[in-house]
Amino acid sequence: MPALQKRLDGVMRSFDGSKVVLPLDLKMRVAQLILRLTEHKKHFGLFVIMGWQKKWQEYLDISDSQQDIFDKRHIDIMHLKPGEHGSRNVAQTINFDGAILIDKKGVILHSGAMIEGLRPRLVAKKLNPGRFKDLSEQFGFTTKVHTRHLSAITASYVFKGTTVFTVSEEDDSFHIYEGGRILIQG
Asked: What is the full DSSP assignment across the chain?
């Protein structure tokens, strides 16, 4: 079994029992797009929030409009033509700071998005009260993570009904979060 297919099978299993009502085929398409990108590029960071809604605009800031390549050119990842690769478009953003925002239909709305006011420490205390040496441990990560991942897991809790993905620029690990919980780590 090819490595990509094996990873996708693991992703599919991670969505068993998901309470997030986004379509499974959309979740899998985004995971496949990201995992294909990680096969071709190394040591980049990525933060994707899928299920973004306009009502959360107060959390959104675009600090550099040149990084928001999807603002005027939305891409529907579910309707890419055969041979068309959304990863090429997403690949353009790997050196950008900030998140990629995808709505619940699979339309990429923004890139380079700064998400403000998430308050990871408060969310971690609510989800996992007790004494921990740091937020990585409190959220349940098996290794120490940094701002992108802490913001992502917090976003998955604050923005109800979203599925959030990250890639670590340090070790190329791929994570999926829903409801403030880690579904995939590694």
From this structure: --HHHHHHHHHHHHTTT----S-HHHHHHHHHHHHHHHHH--S--EEEEES--GGGGGGEEES-GGG-TTSSS-EEGGGPPTT--HHHHHHTTTTS-SEEEE-TTSEEEEEEEEE----HHHHHHHHS-S--SSHHHHHT-SS---HHHHHHHHHHHHSTT-EEEEE-TTT--EEEEETTEEEEE-
